[in-house]
Amino acid sequence: MKFFQRRAEVRGSGPAVGGDRSFINTGVVIGDVHLDPASAGSRARGRLADLVSRQWEREAVDCLQLAHPDAIAVRWHTVRDRRLMDSVRNLTASSLKLRFTGLELEPLLAEFRTMRRRRLVIIGGPGSGKTTLAVQLVRQLLKNRTEDSPDEPIPVLFSVAGWDTTAFERLNDWVAHRLTRDYPALAPKNTLPTICRNLVEQRHVLPVLDGLDELPPPARTAVVEALSRSCAEDAQLILTCRTDEYRQAVQKPGKPFTSALVIEPNSVSPTAAADYLDRCLHVEREPSWDRVLEALRTTRPLDGPIAVLAEVAASPLGLWLVRTAYERSDPAELLASDRFQDADGLRTHLFDALIPAVVQHRGPRDDSFERAAPRRRHDPADVKHWLSYLASLTPESPDLPWWRLARGANVLTPIVCLCFGMITAVISGLLLAGAFLILYPSGNYLGSVLFGAATGGAGGMAAHSWADSTPGYARPRLRGRWALAGAALDNIVNGLLVGIPTGYFLYLVGARPHYALVGVILTAALLNGVTSGFMDWVETPSPDDGPLTPLDHFQADRRLEVLRTWVFALAYGPALAVGFSLLRGVAVGLAAGIIGGLSIAFTTGTLQGRHHAWLAFSAATYRLSRQGHLPRPLMPFLDDAHRLGLLRAVGPVYQFRHQALRHYLRSLQPSDQRSRQVEQGSGSGDRARVRTSKRCPVNDL
Fold first, then answer.
1. Backbone angles phi and psi of 4, in degrees to 5
2. What is the CA radius of gyration of the chain?
3. Which of 21, 490, 420, 399 is nearest to 210 (CA)?
4. Cα 581 to Cα 328: distance, rounded to the nearest angstrom
5. Which CATH number is associated with domain 53-265?
6. What angle do CA 208, 212, 214 make, to 5 degrees?
7. Which span out of 9-13, 546-550, 647-651 was modeled with the highest average pLDDT?
8. Of 374, 319, 365, nearest to 343 (Cα)?
9. For helices 288-298 and 270-280, what crossing angle results, to 10°?
10. Are strands 653-656 and 28-30 parallel, antiparallel or unpaired?
11. pLDDT tens-digit series, residues 520-547
């Protein structure tokens, strides 16, 4: 029933919500101003463009350091193996001769705009700069969106490894789902799915799908087939994949991705590598650097140690490793004839030196403007151990979703859930028994036993479902959200509509005294309306909310859990105290308010609501830290690893900076984690450590 068809659009955050939580297709009303759906859709597009732009501006500058001083000047061209592309009759003729560099994207952007079907596939070897180019394209396409072209689609980068084609057969369905999950600040939660679907279906979103090669071979082929099948004629798309994996994916169905232009990179020349390193290094650098750079520029033919270095530096990943590992160290050993026999040995050495280098040289800063500096200092051995364990938990996916840690580590076992259920049963049963003891000293306590058993069973089942819970959203700001008080009024009215008939029915069947009964029912209905409306209000974003990092998502979900508990405790506790004070006296009322408020707070905090990701994460980190696998405050550590440049943030999840880094770290863990040997420290301050004698099989990177 529609009670308040007023408010629904928070400035710039999406279209309207009526009292029945439905999207008002005929328009929205804000005060006395009426907005039609076209205006609401325009606001949603602008909001999404702003969120994506701010997200990747921060990520590219602070984490990927693409402006420090510039991205690596990789040269790109149309793929030479034409079997990886569709028929030339389905492509724009000029695109077959496309050439550009990573520093000058205008030729690619101009060609992309003139393509009959804007579909681009970026392929290349491991660490060749595919993701970096995709990020550069996202940023540049957003910059080129002007007021004169408001209908230009908004590029949004997604990790394609998260696409399950059995659950989402169409690309549009999966992209709409990911928009809803990754950008909760885009619109109020009740209209967010509708808004996201409208944005996708109306071609206002340009999906940039990164990492097709991270899927297993059958899934890769299924994704390519789904793309060709579900992409409409005017659908736009950018896709990245390793060359060999893309070749396998398109050869099995016997047909490449329809109408897609495929580009690949050239190797970085030794001279270009030397020029890049020269620009990045500090003015006061080790004298050995001059000899290394000169050797890269002048040694022809390449032979000996300089040939090994040139082979590693031929890819952007290898060049980044050389720069990071030796930025403030002496690189003389790179020219030693007996130090590195081949490129694999040098890569392994660089991966070994990477984490100590970034931890030691990028410590906490006192300067508040140093946004990329970690907040605390860590032991490099701990960082390597903790990240290697996390890499072992996600062998088939690049994502590190913090709310899936309990599922990946299998922490919430039936025994753990049973123990939680028993604790819940004891606490709730004792609280109710205490209330009976105060109110009816000579009463029967069977009810408290049954209530405790029922609550314990519900708690055990709830704990089992925590591992599949998704993060909630809570950011209790007032600015820009006053009009959302209508949500609370809607819940109050709905509560009264349920409470009044219920109280009257109980009165008719003989419940007495009727005034007390009706009062309790009405009070409960009002409190439920106020608390539920307040929680709806809290979970709705404000116009000031920016793009959310994984740490933001974690803090928002934790805030929601804690706030839900306190809201119900502070709402029902005083109400019970006042009610029982009128009936049985002040002392009884105070006891009832405290006991009842605590009981309701505990049960609502753990059982009510759909979002309990923080509880599952807390249980997982506690157990895994006790076993020595991870630090107890895990999210602050992940935030520091992100600031150090070891992780990158894609929406609400972290990913390793490069997939080669993830493979290297995963190789440090024994293949059978259950049989790993853990050395316990002799002192109370020692941490459990895992023997990691294996080295990275760089051939597989």
1. -130, 90
2. 30
3. 399
4. 72
5. 3.40.50
6. 130
7. 647-651
8. 319
9. 150
10. unpaired
11. 666 766 776 777 777 777 776 665 566 6
Residue type, 693: S
Domain boundaries, the chain: 53-265, 273-361, 380-411+617-700
Residue with tokens 């006042």: 578
Q: Supply the angle between the helices 130-144 and 37-58 in degrees, to the nearest 10.
A: 140
Look at the block and give the residue holding tokens 């410590």.
363
Residue found by looking up tokens 């819970």 in the block: 469
400 with 394: CB under 8 angstroms? yes
DSSP string, 271-337: HHHHHHHHHHS-SS--THHHHHHHHHHH-SS--THHHHHHHHTTSHHHHHHHHHHHTTS-GGGGG-T
Q: Torsion angle of alpha carbons 39, 42, 47, 50, nearest 10°?
A: -140
Give Cα 340 distance to the centre of its chain.
Answer: 39
d(C-alpha 20, C-alpha 297), whole Å:
70
Instruction: Find tokens 């695109």 and name the residue.
Output: 95
Q: Which pLDDT belongs to residue 26?
A: 35
Sign of CA dihedral 640, 644, 650, 654: negative
C-alpha span between 493 and 510 (Å, rounded): 26
Left, alpha or beta for 694 (phi > 0: left; psi -120 to 50: alpha)?
A: beta
At 352 the three-state DSSP class reads: helix
For 644, the token pair is 């150090």
Please, is 170 exposed, middle or buried when counting C-beta atoms within 10 Å of its C-beta (0-12, 13-18, 19+)? middle
